[in-house]
Amino acid sequence: MLMRTDPFRELDRLAQQLMGPGTWSKPSAMPMDAYREGDEYVVAFDLPGVTADAIDIDVERNMLTVKAERRPMAKADDVQMELSERPLGVFSRQIVLADTLDTEHIKADYDAGVLTLRIPIAERAKPRKISIGVATGHKEISG
Length: 143
Description:
single chain, mainly beta, 4-stranded antiparallel beta sheet, 3-stranded antiparallel beta sheet
């Protein structure tokens, strides 16, 4: 579940600005962090300006999909936009989850523009001690 840094991230951001907002058929990427905290993996997505009801989270087998839409703010007729750098449109990210994660118990919280998913590690993947049985009787081989 480790993600590698993308050396072309700034180039992608520039291309998104030039190509326009993401659509449902061709969404833009969203930035994220992923890390392990105790017995769960935590994935945090930056979604500033997105309302909680505009976020969709799906899990199918081991594929996690997060989609969100940032809509333009309603403006009065006499407002003239001077600068618009915040991207609008649809954002999406898909992550392949390891079989060692419990996808049945994912928790999602949204606070201050950050969507945080907590995915517990499955019990079968946690380290455990194996006890060794000791034979009680000795057998002799006679020939």
